[in-house]
């Protein structure tokens, strides 16, 4: 069975609506990256050095990351020699297969770690403006749809307007927000939120945190204090520490991921605004350079625009419709 047929079969088990969401959200990346590849494959029939060079340029331009691109091109060269491929077209499914392989999470779990019983605490970290508050709102909506009782903690007491912004999302989604006044100690807000979550029999507590990076030491100290407060109440919490990254910042998102992963015990990444960039290849770069899985992607500003990340769906959404007939839906 061909690679695309296998991929399509596995995708068809999953909801069509989700696949369509990925397709819509990734349209900018499709237009730039995939059509660039498609154009290359249609213009160049033979595999030669210029072909590899152009492919390299397209992949680097989509923010796949130089190291990963070099590795990928080397692997393609090996396949070309091994399988004695001469026509460029024959390389296209192999390229897609390699892209899926690059995105595979390996041993790491990509689903949310939810406590078997009792309260689950999820902490969101990340610099200002990456889409943290929006992601919390969307995730609250998603968990509520799954029948869970959700509570929000307004732990970003630093940025003017952050508490109100979270409250707006709380109202929109229909979940309560535990807050104190602006400037309050975030650890104290967490303490209040944990007490409230326990007495109200909440399933999942989603905690916002401040995102200022100009003062890294303080930020990390603040996070450590928050951890201590949470662990005193629930030793196995936080069950997730999710770093929110803005995909439109490209390689900068990768640097942020490295910076935070050193200090904060991250368990997963959320890549927002994928709909707003043509450089969706950053997902591949992050997967390759970090041991932490991308667990969710943001594909728009609306409530239901947060999707669990699925590598097969991602590649399928990028390539369907642009492939040969065999591969179309
Ligand atoms: N297109 C698009 N926009 C998004 C997405 N996620 C967030 N945004 C937008 O990004 C902007 C910043 O999002 P916020 O949630 O305010 O960012 P934040 O990280 O909470 O900011 P701080 O509170 O300063 O840390 C808002 O205008 C959001 O609507 C996404 O997946 N796609």
From TrEMBL:
Its EC number is 3.6.5.4. GTP binds at residues 126-133, 208-212, 272-275. The keyword GTP-binding applies. GO terms for molecular function: GTP binding; GTPase activity; signal recognition particle binding. Transmembrane segments: none annotated. Coiled coil: none annotated. Keywords: Cell membrane, Cytoplasm, GTP-binding, Hydrolase, Membrane, Nucleotide-binding, Receptor. It is a peripheral membrane protein. GO terms for biological process: SRP-dependent cotranslational protein targeting to membrane. It catalyses: GTP + H2O = GDP + phosphate + H(+). One of its GO terms (cellular component) is cytoplasm. It is found in: Cell membrane; Cytoplasm. Pfam families: SRP54, SRP54_N. Residues 293-306 form the SRP54-type proteins GTP-binding domain. It is an enzyme of class 3 (hydrolase). Its main location: membrane. Involved in targeting and insertion of nascent membrane proteins into the cytoplasmic membrane. Acts as a receptor for the complex formed by the signal recognition particle (SRP) and the ribosome-nascent chain (RNC). Part of the signal recognition particle protein translocation system, which is composed of SRP and FtsY. Belongs to the GTP-binding SRP family. FtsY subfamily. PANTHER family: SIGNAL RECOGNITION PARTICLE RECEPTOR SUBUNIT ALPHA. This is Signal recognition particle receptor FtsY. The lineage of its organism: Bacteria, Bacillati, Bacillota, Bacilli, Bacillales.
